[in-house]
From TrEMBL:
It comes from Aegilops tauschii subsp. strangulata (Goatgrass). Residues 94-140 form the PSP proline-rich domain. It comes from the Eukaryota. The keyword Transmembrane applies. The keyword Ribonucleoprotein does not apply. InterPro entries: DUF382 (IPR007180), PSP_pro-rich (IPR006568), U2_snRNP_Complex_Component (IPR052584). The chain crosses the membrane at residues 144-166. Keywords: Membrane, Transmembrane, Transmembrane helix. One of its GO terms (cellular component) is nucleus. This is PSP proline-rich domain-containing protein.
Length: 167
């Protein structure tokens, strides 16, 4: 198995310059240079290969210094010890939102005042938490099943025995 094999079924996006490099205007100069090169005849192109002329694209060095030393942003990298696998770059990254944190929009939609607990907290205290239901029968937490109320035991048995019922 190859680690970096071609990804099947995924359309690769064209390369985009980072924002801090695109701000220098190098892309416009490069397109103008390519347009000028395409208008040349083949004899001129051959002469350019044998006797190249350097310095065709004049970029202000202050702009380049600003782009690479002042305004450069750090790219998203994997942390130390993370293993790369196919499709890792397409996973959802939860940097600004964390599980359990409610956004202001959601609180307004639920009609929750500031500092109030979420409406499902009471049912989670009485019954088993929804995410743990799938883990209970796999792990050694079998003692939790005996502590369930009858309605929670019914829901638990439906989810474990017939997981497609609640989809």
């Amino acid at each position: 198995m190859l680690l970096f094999q071609a990804k099947r079924g995924i359309a690769k996006r064209p390369f985009q310059l980072p924002v801090f490099i695109a701000a220098t205007g190098i892309e416009k100069m490069r397109q103008a240079y390519i347009k000028k090169e395409n208008s040349k005849r083949s004899k001129q192109k051959q002469r350019g290969c044998t006797q190249p002329k350097m310095g065709k694209m004049d970029i202000d060095y202050q702009d380049l210094h600003g782009a690479f030393f002042k305004y450069q942003t750090k790219p998203n990298l994997t942390s130390h010890g993370d293993l790369y696998y196919e499709g890792k770059e397409f996973e959802v990254k939860l940097r600004e939102m964390k599980p359990g944190m409610l956004s202001r929009k959601l609180k307004e939609a639920l009609g929750m005042p500031d500092g109030a607990p979420p409406p499902w907290l009471k049912s989670m205290q009485v019954c088993i938490q929804p995410i743990i239901v799938f883990l209970v029968y796999i792990t050694n937490n079998a003692f939790i099943i005996s502590q369930l109320t009858p309605i929670c035991l019914f829901i638990f048995s439906c989810m474990v025995l017939h997981p497609l019922i609640l989809v």
